[in-house]
Design goal:
Number of helices: 3
Pfam family, one: V-ATPase_G
Organism: Cercophora scortea
Largest sheet: none
Helix content: over 70%
Distance between the termini: 164 Å
Low-confidence stretches: 10-19
InterPro entries: V-ATPase_G
Structural class: mainly alpha
Subunit structure: V-ATPase is a heteromultimeric enzyme made up of two complexes: the ATP-hydrolytic V1 complex and the proton translocation V0 complex.
Order of helices and strands: HHH
Keywords: Hydrogen ion transport, Ion transport, Transport
């Protein structure tokens, strides 16, 4: 029986080790675990809020950067358009003058040709009529 009592004593010590004997200790540990879990959940929610704010801020900054870049591009385009129009107006005037001079010269040459045609018109008509009415046959070689 001594062996059975010793075995029961060992078994009861094992139970004491494995099973809590005091309900208040178990409640305290459970409450601490619950509080720890709640703290972790709160931290996770806070981290999610921080990440969401960071995403919103990044989205806002990307949009602002896009708007700023568009304004810079529009300003640059307006500047280059103004430069081009200035360049074009400066060089078009030179071309316009050259074009006007070429037109005047062409009109002068056309007038000279017409005048030459009118002054030699009678002689040309006379030579054509004489070639038609005065036939001089030549033998073919």
């Amino acid at each position: 029986m001594a062996g059975a009592a010793a075995a029961a004593a060992v078994h009861s010590k094992q139970l004491a080790i494995t099973a809590p004997t005091n309900d208040s200790t178990f409640s305290l540990a459970s409450a601490q675990n619950s509080a720890g879990i709640q703290t972790l959940l709160d931290a996770e929610r806070e981290a999610s809020k921080i990440v969401q704010k960071a995403r919103e801020y990044r989205t806002k900054r990307v949009k602002e950067a896009r708007d700023e870049a568009k304004k810079e591009i529009d300003a640059y385009r307006a500047e280059k358009d103004a430069e081009f129009k200035k360049f074009e107006s400066e060089h078009t005037q030179g071309n316009k003058q050259a074009e006007d001079e070429a037109n005047k010269e062409a009109e002068t040459k056309i007038a000279e040709i017409k005048q030459a045609g009118k002054s030699g018109e009678a002689k040309v008509v006379e030579e054509l009529l004489s070639a038609v009415f005065e036939v001089n046959p030549h033998p073919l070689d």
